[in-house]
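To: structure subgroup
Subject: Chain for Friday's discussion

All,

I'm putting the inputs and outputs inline so they're searchable in the archive.
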Amino acid sequence: MVDTAPRTASKTSKTTASRPAGAAAPHDRPAASVPANGDTAATPQVDVAALGRQLLGTWADLRLIARERAAQPELQRIEGQSMAEHRERVLGQLKILVDQGAIHRAFPKSLGGSDDHGGNIASFEELVIADPSLQIKAGVQWGLFGAAVLHLGTEHHHMTYLPDIMSMKVPGAFAMTETGHGSDVAAIGTTATYDEAKQQFVINTPFRGAWKDYLGNAALHGTAAVVFAQLITKGVNHGVHAFYVPIRGVKGGFLKGVGGDDDGLKGGLNGIDNGRLHFTNVRVPRENLLNRYGSVAEDGTYSSPISSPGRRFFTMLGTLVQGRVSLDGAATTAAAMALTIAITYGNQRRQFNAASDTDEEVLLDYQRHQRRLLPKLATTYAQVFAHDEFLVKFDAVFSGAADTDDDRQDLETIAAALKPLSTWHALDTLQEAREATGGAGFLSENRMVGLRQDLDIYATFEGDNNVLLQLVAKRLLTDFSKQFAKADAGAMARYVVAQTADRAYHGTGLRSLAQTIADFGSTARSVSELRDEPAQRELLTDRVETMISEIAGRLRDARKLPKAEAAAAFNRNQNELIEAARAHGELLQWEAFTRALAKTADPGTKQVLTWVRDLFGLGLVEKHLAWYLINGRLSPKRAQAVTAYIDRLLERLRPHAQDLVDAFGYGPEHLRAKIASGAEQERQDEARAYYAEQRAAGTLPVPEKSKKK
């Protein structure tokens, strides 16, 4: 059994805790310095064990079991394999997961599962540690193909299809995306037309753009697919529905009417056999319609428990939200691994004589290196806490504990807000960590380039990030308009007066003037306001609310315009809508971090986490300083103080950087990066010992420059 518990520390010696091989030894870390504000109180220490447990979240024990599994060499990626070798290895790994009982958790108890939806996702996300291709191919098989049968089908489909899906007897594809339609699922071209005489659906991809594309398991391994198509019966199109369709025979060849291509080599995830499928008059029995939300009787009569076609469509797609949930978690894990590697290396790698005549400086002692990595660490912490709350919400909806329409809409909105932020952050972090580790980071043996390639597509699949944020913005606009849907004239008048007063207060610079007077030119006074939790909340919340209210004002009359003009009006505001949605997602993360902070018991850990939270929150303000200045939310002096205080936070957090990444709990068997294995520390120790020995013996050559002096 591999020890995968977070690296722990005793209460009496928290910073000298047992760590993954390669973590900086205590004497190699900077001494705890007095904070820049002159506070001489004892420097706080992090309880790595307690923090590690907190980071594991609600399903901590299941995550630890999953990490033990991800540490098994037979489940890990072998760098340098050919595409064909990688594909076959990952296929075999899925069978290992079945043999180890790792995939049943979300399936019904009647079929040997646990009906544990949150625990299933928590466990599944950890597979990214072993190989992102394994995580995604497992997601295709059980999180998309199997989940579509589970959530869109009925008891008949569960009993008929799920056992073979769970056992890998039937590998399958999730055939939704088309070459011509990716995010716009409602407009897909594939049709399923009901033939009353034979009681069959006839499936066709009537033109090249309607081919199903980019499908995992489609190129080689899939023998069936859940195919999404426009359901047509009695000459009426009832919109997109899902059908269980066999695609290959026992010898591996396509069945009659089915064809396809191999997508071939990709920019990453080459352990997955992505491919295309097309259908020409492929017939399946009427019972192959996954009919939880829409049925067709023998005579072709259509019926549905949801009368609204639009609401029916979004309900069906909402049942498949778990893909976005798992991507949010897996992307956060990848960022945490990259930062663990880069910060561990930065605590050991030495370069340039800045403060010593004999020893070079540790990279992480340089402010620029701290600026590159520590804000990203703060964001990763925010994402960890936000993801756990997200997963709890997902579990409540899918377990039925909180399964109203509002609950499902909230879940979909959270998914659309957080998945873009975490996947973009993972890509940015992997790139920065790669650069921060120099040429060593470019070697595949140190994981960064491979992870960066594999996670690139996370920003696109399960919903393009910009499209998802647009969905969030539309929900924010809808909620905003609901506030006034039944408002009387007096309420509307009061709102207009308040908005006018707000614009006068901010727009004329009165707020900035008030801040300037309050601060009296003092950076200390400015900082005291900025580090205040309510002040940070107000700054972040105000930005979201102001952006949405301004856009809503501009679009208020758009619904009365002809369709083309209304679309043009929306398009003119699209960029600002997406920025507002992104700000909303960032606010969700800050709020989750703040709630997690309130649950932190150890005083030293709480103090350090407070600095991390402040670094995240003020980092968001710094990123959008132009908005805060233009809109009169901050005075120039207070805006200047944001950056000054961030620099102070970096100083304070520097001694705790290793503890903060050690708390993620990744050992060398997870990271598998030589530069984080202790090898760099050994090289540095060897070099320093060599020069120290020469100095002691008096045999060290004298530099030419000092000789001239």
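Points worth raising on Friday:
The first strand starts at residue 172 and ends at 175.
The chain is about 55% helix and 10% strand.

D.
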